[in-house]
Write a structure and sequence with these properties.
Blueprint (H helix, E strand, L loop, with lengths): L1 E5 L2 E8 L4 E5 L18 H4 L5 E5 L17 H14 L5 E6 L1 H13 L3 E7 L8 H15 L8 H9 L17 H5 L5 E4 L8 H10 L3 E4 L8 H16 L1
Parallel strand pairs: 3-4, 3-5, 5-6, 6-7, 7-8
Antiparallel strand pairs: 1-2, 2-4
């Protein structure tokens, strides 16, 4: 893997292939890093190696990336890391695919740089459905390891900035954690959603994104071995069309 440094943050990434740029944001919650793709139903670094320039990254303080946990840290700082990597690589317009927490990161990219996002694939995006405690527990498990490297950081504030406090009424944290329903209604970016179906990735979230967004479609089945090849083909066709 390669790396670049920005504002005391080191981001590790893999950059390979040629063609339209495809940013890949791995699942894994706060441990979102390139290696987690190996545990997914398919690995986009392999599936889309022909025809796309794939850029996969470890998020800040996941995998081999590391950086400060600053006061006020939240989704926006991660978005800045992602855009800084693309800028470093000289990529202006790009496609993006994100799984799990990657869906929320995609929401941040659309908000910050919608003119640069040619199309987005959300694989089982996270969303709020009587499950905030599960996200808090996921964050706390990650924080047990992270605190040794960041002893002065305010992890509670960081957790609530990412996933909302127990009594949060912030609109973004009532839906995708990083986008409100009104924001999604305003999306014009071509969107393809692969349906989620579990605690962290409610089916209702996937369906509502498709219902709200102006230019979105849904893949119902994609995780079972007999459905994955068809879904990968559909995703590839979507990416190719969005890049034209």
């Amino acid at each position: 893997m390669a790396s670049f440094v920005r504002n005391n943050t080191t981001i590790h990434y893999e950059d390979s292939g040629s063609g339209p740029a495809l940013l890949l944001i791995a699942p894994g919650g706060m441990r979102s890093h390139v290696g987690v793709w190996e545990k997914a139903p398919f690995n986009p670094l392999r599936e889309f190696a022909a025809g796309f320039r794939t850029v996969a990254m470890d998020q800040r303080n996941a995998g081999q990336s590391h950086g400060p946990i600053e006061p006020g840290m939240g989704w926006d700082q991660h978005t800045q890391d992602q855009l800084a990597l693309l800028d470093e690589l000289g990529i202006q317009r790009f496609l993006v695919m994100g799984m799990c927490i990657g869906g929320a990161y995609i929401a941040g990219l659309i908000r910050a740089a919608k003119e640069r996002v040619m199309g987005a694939v959300l694989l089982q995006p996270i969303g709020l459905e009587n499950n905030r405690d599960a996200f808090h527990q996921m964050f706390d498990n990650w924080a047990v390891e992270a605190k040794s490297k960041h002893p002065q950081a305010d992890f509670e504030a960081y957790k609530f900035a990412m996933f909302g406090s127990p009594d949060s009424t912030e609109p973004r944290q009532q839906f995708l954690f990083n986008a409100s329903r009104d924001e999604v209604r305003a999306w014009t970016t071509p969107i393809l959603v692969a349906k989620g179906n579990d605690l962290y990735h409610p089916e209702s979230t996937s369906r509502e994104v498709v219902r709200l967004a102006r230019n979105a479609s849904l893949i119902e089945e994609w995780k079972q071995p007999d459905s994955t090849p068809v879904a990968v083909k559909q995703i590839g066709e979507f990416l190719t069309a969005a890049a034209d």
